[in-house]
Hints:
Shape: flat
Largest sheet: 8 strands, mixed
Helix content: 10-25%
Radius of gyration: 32 Å
Strand content: 25-35%
Number of strands: 40
Number of domains: 6
Amino acid sequence: MKFxxxxxxxxxxxxxxxxxxxxxQDSCADRCGELLGxxxxxxxxxxxxxxxxxxxxxCLQISPYSGSLMGGKDFLIxxxxxxxxxxxxxSVFNIYRFKQKIITSGYVDNDGKAHCISPLLxxxxxxxxxxxxxxxxxxxxxxxxxxxxxxxxxxxxxCTLVNETKWQYYGTPSTGxxxxxxxxxxxxxxxxxxxxxxxxxxxxxxxxxxxxxEWKYLxxxxxxxxxxxxxxxxxxxxxxxxxxxxxxxxxxxxxxxxDGQSNILSIWSSxxxxxWHLEKDFRNDPNAWASAKCIEWDRKEELLPNFLEEIIxxxxxxxxxxxxxxxFHTDYGCDIEKGSVCTYHPGAxxxxxxxxxxxxxxxxxxCCYDSTGTQIxxxxxxxxSTPDRGHDWGSAPFLKPPRIPGFSHWLxxxxxxxxxxLWSDNCDFYMKRRPSSDCRTYRPPRxxxxxxxxxxxxxxxxxxxxxxLGEYTLVESDLTSLRVxxxxxxxxxxxxxxxxxxxxxxxxxxENNSDVIEVRYSEDLNLEVLLNQRVLSxxxxxxxxxxxxxxxxTPDQNITVMFSSGAGVEIRExxxxxxxTVLLPEKFINHTRGLFGVMNGNPEDDYTFKNKTTMxxxxxxxxxxxxxxxxxxxxxxxxxxxxxxxxxNSFFHGEKHNASFLPVFTPYExxxxxxxxxxxxxxxxxxxxxxxxxxxxxPQVGNSTRLSxxxxxxxxEHLKPVISCGWLEHPTNGRKNDTNYLLGSTINFTxxxxxxxxxxxxxxxxxxxxxxxxxxxxxxVTAIKQVIIIGSVFGIVGLAVLARLGYLCRK
Length: 811
C-alpha cells in the first residue's frame, strides 16, 4: 500500500523522509511545502507520521491514546526517540477551562522513549498536547490525548470500594465493619502506595460567570502500604472539618509523592457518596440529617432555572427508545444487554439517555422502561425515568455549569437522590424536582437504508436499486449542512472475476464544521474508521466524544455516529459490503436531497435529480440509473480519503460516476440454473435478495441482503408514531389498576372503603390523544347515605331470614 495524499511518487516521499532524518528541528511546513505545496503536505507528511494535520509541528503517536479525565495515566510516545539527558515537559491545552495550559513533568526511560502523565481535566474529547525537551523553553512536538468520561475507562484504570453491606450506606443503621478497596496493582510500578480522599465541589452561583468546578485533596487515608491491590479499613474520625464533602473519590499514588500532589501517576476509584466519612450528626440520626439536606437541596432547586422545558421528550416504548440511535443511547447503569441491573430504577429493565445535552442549560433526559416495554413514570414509581439538571456525559463548553462530564450530574442529580431517597424517606421531594416526561410530544425519526448491490430505501418508503460505480451523495441537508456520501466498488464473483454489480465500500459524513468520519470496508481489516482522514483505533475506547458528534463502536464492529442535530448514522458490514442506515429527526422534513430523496412523507418526489427535476416513481431501471448518476459528488466537495494508489486512480483522478460501467439492470432467472432453485428457497419473495444472488452468484450475499432488508422493515415498524394520552392520576382515597397510557389502554378506578366514585370508573386512551370519560373522584359517603345503606343491608338480610323461616315452616 502506498501512503500518499495526492499524485506524488515514492521518490518525493523518500526525499521527505531523508529531510526528516537530517534535521528534526526543521518545520514540517518548510520540508513539505518546498516539494509539494501546502495542500499536499498535510496528507503526505501526516502519512509519514511526522506532521500534525496543520503541518506546523512534529506529530506524536502515543500509547495508550486515552484515559480518564481524572488524569494520572502514563502514556508512551512511540515514534520519536529522545536523549536521556532531555528534560521533558508535557503541556496539555485545557480548551474550555480558560484555555490555559497544564504543564506536567515527563521522563525518558532507559530505551530513550518519552513518557507523559495525563493531567486532571474537566472535559472529554481529543485534547491537544505539546512536548518540550528543554524544560519548557520550546514545545516543538505535538499530538492529541483522548480524555474519557470516568465511568467509561478500562477496568485496569479503576479501583473499587466494597463492603459486606453497602458502602454507600455506611454509617446508617445496620451497616458498618470493614471497607475494602481493590485495584489492579500492576498499573502502578511502585512497591508502596498512599491512598488519598478527594472531594468535588462547584463553587459560585450556578449558571453565572463566577462558577468554578474543583477537585480538592482532603486527606490521606493510608500511607506507605504495600501495593498488593487490596486494602481493608474501618473508617475513623479524622482531624479537620470535611463534613461539607459528601461526594468524592479515592486516589492511589506511589508513596514517593507528597500529599495531594497534582498530575502524577495514579489510579482513581469510581466517584461515590462519601457516606462512610460523614460527621457524627449523620451517624447519630442519618434520616434526620439527610432529610435536612434534602430540604436544603429542594430550596436551592427552587431558585434555579427550569431546565425541564427544553429537554427532549422520552420515546413512548422501549422499542422506539432502542431504535432512535441518533438521539438516545443506552444508559450504562441500566442495560438490558447486561442483565438489567438497575440500581436506581427498581422495576426497570432498560434505560436510555438523550445523547445531546439541552442547548441552554446543558441538561439531560433519561427514560426507563419495564419488561412490557412501557415507560415508567416517577408519578407511579420511584424507579421511573428521571431527567438530569447536569447531563451525565457533560456538554461543551465545559466551563459553564453544570456541564462537567459525570461530576456535575453527581452533584446536581445523584447525591440529592441519596439525601432524599436512599438516606431518608423524602423521595417525593426528589421526584417533584425530577419528574418523568411522558411521550406526548415525542416524534420518532425517519429512517433510510442502503445495502447489498446496493438497494436504497428512502425516508418516505420508496425502494429502488442503483448499482453505479463511483462516489455519490446519499443525503445532504441545508438545515445543518449535513452531508453523507457513499462510495461503491464492484463485487467479486466466486470465480474471482468482477460482477456486473456494485456495493457500498465506504461512507463519509460531516455536519456543519464537525469532525469528518469515514467508515470503509477492508477485506483484511473488516471495518476501518477514519477521523479527519486518520485511522482511528477502538482498541481502548468504544465511545468517543468528538467535535460536533459522538462515535460509538459495538464489539462486533457496528459503528454509530450521532451528530449534534440528532441525526444518526449506523454502519455495519454485511455480505462483503457496508449496510447503512440514516435516521433524521422530524425537523429535517423538506430539508433533504440526494439518493435517499426528499424527506416529506411523499415518495412521489424522491426521484429528484441534482438539478431539481423529478421523474415518475414508475421509472425504468435504466432511468433510475440516470437519476443515481446525477448525484455523483465532485472532488471539491468530497469527504473521502485517497491514501492508496487504487483510490487515487479509481476515484480521485477517475470519474466520480464511472459512465463506462454498465450493471445488470434485471438479472435473468434461468430455470435450468441450479442456483435459481437455491435462490427461491432462500429469498422467497424478497426481490433484493433474489437480485443479489443472481448478480453476485453468492447465496451468502443474498442472505445478508435479505437480513438487512428485514432489519430495515423492523426498524421502520419500531419507529412508527405512538399516541399517548399522558399520565392519569389515581383519585385521592382511591386506586387505579394500570400505568400504561398509550393508545387503546383502559384504566379502571376504585375507591377505598368509606368512599364512593363519581366521574368515570373506566377511561380509555383514544386516537385523539385524549382520555375518554370524566375525571374520577372518591367522595366520602355521607352519614345519611351510610344509614340508608346500612338499613338497606339489614332489610335485605331480614327479608332473606323471613323467607327462609317461611320455607322451613311450610316444609
